[in-house]
Amino acid sequence: MKLYYTPGTCAFAPHTVANELGIKLDLVKVDLGKKTTSDGKNFLDINPKGYVPALELDDGRILTEGPAISLYLADLHPEKNLAHKCGTFERAEVTSWLSYISTELHKNFSPLYAPASSDTEKQAARDKLAKRFALVEQTLEKASYLVSNQFSAADAYLFTVLGWCDHLGIALDKFPSIQRYIEELTQRESIIAAKAAEKAG
Fold first, then answer.
1. Residues forming a β-bridge with 17
2. How many CA atoms lie within 13 A of 60 on its CB side?
3. Start and end of every GST C-terminal domain (predicted)?
4. CATH code at 49?
5. What is the domain-level CATH number for residue 111?
6. Which end of the chain is more exposed for a tag (fewer CB within 10 A), N or C?
7. CA distances, 190 to each of 93, 120, 168, 194, 195 (Å)
């Protein structure tokens, strides 16, 4: 399988999930500005949405959207419990967190990266993120991970978006549990390997 990615983006989450599962992905780097891939293809022919990640299966089918890719990969090895068994409360919790991270965290980073955003819009985004982080902090005060106190696909996604805070100068001093979470996950082998692969690519 091929994972189309751009360094520093949300594609890092399914990449981490694959590493956790021992799934070797062929990584194809995407220039999002030019919409071209490192192997010379027009990325829009692969994903008309124009953004990463995209997963190309061995039969040529394409799956897009990070949470969907992470769940698909996790279900290839259900014994690892990275998304828990379908039909269980824990699976619903993982899905709930993936949705929350996507709509309430990831989405609110967008104005901070958009050149056209005004200072007012950027501050509003920072204020929203602070409120959302407070809820995450409450969860991590009681557990090391988001669901059933074990690493899941939701943690791979949360770690990814939290990683953007440092680049954007967003202080997390008010959220000690989040800071602890980041420090601990930074030492996780799957994350170290994903970072190394992105750097090498």
1. none
2. 1
3. 87-201
4. 3.40.30.10
5. 1.20.1050.10
6. C
7. 22, 38, 24, 6, 9
The first and second tokens of residue 48, run together, are 């008309």
Residues 90 and 149 sit within 8 Å (Cβ to Cβ): no
Instruction: Tell me the pLDDT tens digit for each residue of 153-171.
Output: 999 999 999 999 999 999 9
Residues 10 and 64 in one domain: yes
Asked if residue 165 and residue 195 are part of one domain, the reply reads no
> pLDDT tens digits for 30-80?
999 999 999 999 999 999 999 999 999 999 999 999 999 999 999 999 999
93 and 184 share one domain: yes
Strand 26-31: give its sheet, edge to edge. Answer: 36-37, 26-31, 2-5, 54-56, 62-64
**59-90: b (≥16 Cβ within 10 Å) or e:** eeeebbbbbebbbbbbbebeebbbbbeeeeeb
Confidence of residue 201 (pLDDT cuts 50, 70, 90): confident
* Type of residue numbered 115: P
Domain count, the chain: 2
Determine contact, residues 159/191, Cβ cutoff 8 Å.
Answer: yes
183 and 113 both lie in a single domain: yes
Domain range for residue 160? 89-188
